[in-house]
Structures are given as C-alpha cells and as structure tokens.
C-alpha cells in the first residue's frame, strides 16, 4: 500500500503544483487588488463567486479528456488516445465559448443580486474580462488533462508556475500604473489574467503539437482526428456528471458568497479571504483526486482489479491525513492568514472567525473529492453525483 501511495503522490505532485499555481493567480489578484481598498476586494469577490459555478462546470468537462485518454493508454491503444484527444478538445472548446458568452453578455445580472451598487460598478468590467479569459484557461486545462492522462505532467506544471511571476508583473504594471502604464486597478488584474492565460495556453499547444512524447498521437491526426457521435457521448458520460459534482460543491460556496454580499462589503471581503484559503487547500485534494483517478483508469483499462484496490485504499488514507493537517493549520494560523489579503481590522476579525468554520470541513472535503475521483477512474460517475 505504501508503494502505491508513493506512486500516486509522485504523479500527483506536478498536478497539485499546477492546480495551486492556477489557484494562486486568483489569490494574487485578490491580494494585490485588496491592497487598494476593501471595496475593490469585494468587487473581485463578487466576480469570482458569479463566475465560479460556470467555470468549474467547464473544468468538469475537461476531466473527461484525462479519463478517456488514460483508459485508452492503459489498453495501449494509441489511435483511441488520439481520437479522444481531438474530440475532447473541441467539445471543451465549444463549452468554453458558451460559458464565456454567458458571462460576458449576462453581466447585468450583478445588478439584481442585492449587492453594494459601488461594488457592482467596479465588478462589471472585471467580469467581462474574466469571462473572456475563461476560453484560453479551459483550452489550457484541456491540453493539460490530455498530457496528465498520459502521465506526462511536468510541462503543464512548469507553465502554470511560469504564469505566476508573469501575472504578478503584469498586475504590478496595470493595477498600480507603474512604468508609465495606466492605473487600471481591478480592471488591470483582469487584463493581466487574460494575457497570462492566453500565453500559457499557446505555449502548451506548441509543446503538444511538436514534442516527441506526443508525436504518435499527433501523427495519426489524418485518420483519428474526426468527429464521432459515439466518442462525444462517451466524453459527455464522464464530463457532465463530473461537472455536476464539482459544480454543486463550488455552487454552494458561490451562492453563499453572493448572499453574504447582501450584508455588506466587509462581510463579502472577509468571506472571500476565508474562501481563498479553503480553495487553496482543496486544490491539493483535487490534484490527488486527479492523479488517483488517472492511475485507476489506467489500471481499469488493463482490468487490474488488485491494483485498483490498492490505489484506492492508499489514496484515501493520504486524503484523511492531509485533511487533518489542513484543519490544524487553519485553526492555528487563523489570525495570520487574513493579513496576506487585507489590513482592515473588521475584515481581519471576521475572516479569522470564518477560517474556524473552514477548518471543520477540511477532512470531509478532501476524502469526498478523492473518493469521487477514484470512482470516476472506473467510470462510476452516477453514485457520487447523486450523493453530492
């Protein structure tokens, strides 16, 4: 069991780092915007909550790519890998476009959520930019799921890490107006995110099309890169329940954030700080879930049931230990963590209290996410969707 846990962690590490790096982009934006004023922070929180549900629905759809690619890879079927990649990419591209258009053209819904009018005015243009940036982000995630499904995880991790200093530098230029650039404040964070996401997508696309590791799957494009209804149904069979699983959990937090926004900007900013911390730790659970799901799917492709059982048990123990450590960390450092985001005394006090609630659900959050990932690896997506 220890050996299987080690293999899962080895695969999970680059995935986790990549997930944390993507999450860090939101946290960096939150922290750098929060340094201007708590109302800017509240506007950023409103946008994050408003777009969180459709965004994670898109991420759930990309998961189908890694699952089907890993399954075909376990069967050593290069042609099916190539075929799933092509159909999955365009399915996710259409999904990304629909989500983006919904956010961009549905921006005025923010006026009807009972939020502070000043916060809404700040949030509208930011929502439009973030809505557009979902397209390169989900396309990057699709390519990442393809490479992860082949257990080639380093490139996406490196690009995700590279995106952090790029985003920080662009934020520094555009939020604060340094080096002669206009001071765009919250809007500057939106432009920085859009540019960063577009860059890492383009670079990963170039790698996938040209690197020797992926050449066997790209070289079959004349034969395998064709749309087939059966393949799309297989991808949707995994993608839709995966989207619903992640979307319902994220939706609960997003809706609570919007409801809290009706109380006031201080409450909304405090909630966003606690949510950012909880989301950061959840990304580790998601990385473990993806790694275990990929390994289980690969073993499922070769029908190796003893290996599947060992992977499942070892990963669940890892999830339990991780959840306990996170709960302890949130409890001990609940007064220090909020200071990374804002210096308003009322915001800091309320955020510290909310972190205690976040500590309570860390164990259940990590174990359910990884349990759902393990079941997804054997194409069991109905039961976890119903339970969640």
Task: Tell me what you see in this structure.
The chain has 388 residues and is mostly helical. It has one domain (2-387). It is 83% helix and 0% strand. It has helices at 2-34, 38-74, 78-105, 117-149, 154-174, 186-210, 215-219, 221-224, 229-261, 265-301, 305-332, 345-360, 362-377, 382-387. It is globular.
| Amount of beta strand | under 5%
Largest β-sheet summary: none
Mass-distribution shape = globular
Query: Which structural category do the helix and sheet elements fall into?
Result: mainly alpha
Order of helices and strands: HHHHHHHHHHHHHH
Which regions are unreliable across 5 or more consecutive residues at pLDDT < 50? none
What are the salient characteristics of this protein?
single chain, 388 residues, mainly alpha
SSE diagram, text form:
Layout (H helix, E strand, L loop, with lengths): L1 H33 L3 H37 L3 H28 L11 H33 L4 H21 L11 H25 L4 H5 L1 H4 L4 H33 L3 H37 L3 H28 L12 H16 L1 H16 L4 H6 L1
Helix pairs in contact: 1-2, 1-5, 1-6, 1-10, 1-11, 2-3, 2-4, 2-9, 2-10, 3-4, 4-6, 5-6, 9-10, 10-11, 10-12, 10-13, 11-12, 11-13
Question: Summed up, what is this model?
Answer:
The chain is an all-alpha fold. The chain has 14 helices and no strands.
